[in-house]
Automatic annotation (TrEMBL):
Residues 8-302 form the Carbohydrate kinase PfkB domain. GO terms for cellular component: cytosol. Keywords: ATP-binding, Kinase, Nucleotide-binding, Transferase. It holds the Pfam family PfkB. The keyword ATP-binding applies. Residues 186-205, 291-315 are annotated as: Disordered. The keyword ATP-binding applies. The gene is fruK. This is 1-phosphofructokinase. PANTHER family: 1-PHOSPHOFRUCTOKINASE, 1-PHOSPHOFRUCTOKINASE-RELATED. CDD domains: FruK_PfkB_like (cd01164).
Amino acid sequence: MIVTVTANPSTDRTIELAGPLRRGEVHRAARVVDQPGGKGINVARVVRAAGLPTLAVLPARADDPFIDSLRAVALPHQAVSADGTVRTNLTVAEPDGTTTKINDAGTAVSAEAAAALRTTIMARAEGADWLALCGSLPPGLPDDWYAQVLAATASLHCRVAVDTSGAPLAAVAAARPALLKPNSDELAELTGDDPAGMERSAAQGDPSVAAAASRTLADRTGGTVLTTLGAAGALLTTPDGIWFATAPAVAVRSTVGAGDASLAGYLIAHLRGADEAGLLRSAVAHGSAAAALPGTTPPTPDLLDEAGVSVSRLS
């Protein structure tokens, strides 16, 4: 069982343009897609598509239209009652794969709702193999909320994966999760390195800059770090070594949710007993397949190109 937590869920509205985005001009949408989202929701949908058991935990009113959208995609979920309405995030996708995101901050979570959410997480995590804490935190939750949840699960048998950014990422990195999934920007937040330089050198076949930063972070957390580098591929850093994978060439349609699919790919492969190379291959194959789909559509197994992922051990 993979339990995901989406503290700040969203309806993800993707507007596909027929041409490039021109600031200040009027555009007509070629296609508009609304999908239930938020990082944990995205991860759970990919796990569900792979045929593995999953449960998405989130705060939302029982009568929120967002809950209907989860039912529409047949995603197992448990909603903890919360005030307000689930936010809508906007993505503008250009034909060349460039995406521009405008994210709402989300509705504030009350102290009562936060306590209920944490109680639900603890109950569901007790029987899970993995607990994935994903995405931004809404107003009302402190920056160290994920770190608090991680500490509370220390006595349980489930592993904890975290995918977030900013102050919540800094707080949880010190709490030593089993797995952190930063992208190059998020890795740079913690190590002070240049994210553009990481991706540029990796795309040129030299992942050493990103690998050194990933090793610094893995040594700090004592766990595993899965670093996604966009089209350049990804790194898997464990206490025992570093692996680098290049991504298969795809026609990028939307990068939103690709990192979430990568995390899901890792978790799926871990439940199936893969070794480090297999874990990274699955992560990159899932992320690449997601990037070729509209919006945050989860990739299905038939769309994966694991044979097109090249994995090498760096150390």
